[in-house]
Amino acid sequence: MIPSHWFRRAILIVFIMEVGGGILWVAARLTLSPAYQPLAQTIASLIFLFGFYASAPLAARFLAPKPSRDAALQSRLAAIVASLPETCPIVLYDHTDKEANTVGLLGKHSRIYVTTALLTSMSDEGMRGVIAHESAHIRERHILITFTYACVFAIMSHMLSSGTLFFLGFLLFLALRRYCEYRADNGAAVVAGRDATLTMLREMATLYPSKSWHRWFSFSSAYPTLAMRIHAVETGQKTMF
Length: 241
Prior knowledge:
By secondary structure, the protein is mostly helical. Helix content is 65%, strand content 5%. It contains 10 helices and 3 strands; from the N terminus they run ααααβββαααααα. It has a 3-stranded mixed β-sheet. The longest helix is centred in the C-terminal third of the chain and has 30 residues, at 163-192. It starts with 5 loop residues before the first helix and ends in a 6-residue tail after the last helix.
């Protein structure tokens, strides 16, 4: 989730929970026979998933409603963006967390959100890598791919009710998300250059240092560790777990 004030995050989480519960309640009320309730709940889940992913740009505007007014930082970011091929709109906003996020189900509705803390903490070369990485997510439609997988998983869960299926589906989701991160790094290397991508990853590793043993617990994360990503860019060999 995009870094924001805790109150706005809480409001959004409660809103999402209420909408999801409301959709399931309506589906249950409209189902004439209990035998069709699982099917109705599956359809309701698909509607919720579409609304969740499609409304991400609106949620982002709620979480980060005001672009940064720091003219120097805006000018610096504009110069970095100008050095790259065409990208989607980029929003710089004030926040102490050092993060960059991409939202939008389709490319033409996508946005990249960058915090001022991240911009001030990284070099221009590193930020070129960040923007190129986030742009690769949009260019290769990774959010749409994740949405499609979630829909397929919801349908398969209805057709084949199985705890084993849920576990395997979870592992496949982790593998898919990790693959998307590797693909985005590869896309960044193509657009911004291998050196800029490695600079981004190394600077991020400095900002968010990790212990060597963290890798052994990374199986429960949807993202490869920064060390794994650096190794993949340097050698071309990807490690899923």
